[in-house]
Amino acid sequence: MSHGFPPDSVSETVSKIAEILKRRNETISVSEAACGGLLSAYLVSVPGASNWFHGGTLVYSLKSRLKLSGWLEEDIMNYTGPSEKVALRLARNLRIELGSTYVISETGIAGPISEDQKTVFANEDIGTVYLGISTPQGEKTRIHKTKSGDRASNMQEFAQYGLEFFLEELIRIDKESAGNGDNEEGKDGQRKKKRSDD
C-alpha cells in the first residue's frame, strides 16, 4: 500500500481476510467506537473490498447509538462504560440490520479520560478495548489491553488487534467447514447444502 497506510502487518491481515471471504462468498460489517473508523478504513484499503465489505457504523457518542444501534433511552441511562456485553450487542444488532455474514465490533477507552467521564470509567484502564464478533455459528468476545496512554497508538492497536481476532475466528470457521465438506456459507449468512453432484 502507498504512503504507509495501512501498516504492512495490517495489510497482510486484511489480505488474508479478503481472500477467505471472497472464496467463501461471505461478507463483513463493522461497528466502531474507540477506533474512530480505522477498522473500516483498513478493510476497504484492499482493492475489491466492495465484494465482501457491507459497511459499518461509527457509534462514538451514546446518542448515536439511539439512531444507529437500536439502543433505547433506558440503555443510555444505565450505561456503565465499555464491556464485552456492549460489544456483543453492537455486533448482534448490526448483523441484523445489514445482513452481513459476520460483524466485528469494538468499544473501548483510547484515552485520555475527561473529567465528566471519570465516574463512568472509574474502574477502566486507558488502552482497554472490548471486541465482539457475531457469526452464523455463534458469538465471541475478547478483551485487549495495550498498556499505553497514547490515544492515537491505542486506536491503531485496537483496530489491528480486532482484525487479527477476526481472522483467527474466520480461519477456525473455514477449517471446520472444510472438515464437514458438505456446507458452504452464503452472503446472507445462511447455511446452504451443496448438491451431491456439485
TrEMBL record:
InterPro entries: CinA-like_C (IPR036653), CinA_C (IPR008136). Residues 184-198 have a biased composition (Basic and acidic residues). It comes from the Eukaryota. Transmembrane segments: none annotated. Coiled coil: none annotated. Residues 176-198 are annotated as: Disordered. Residues 14-169 form the CinA C-terminal domain. This is CinA-like protein.
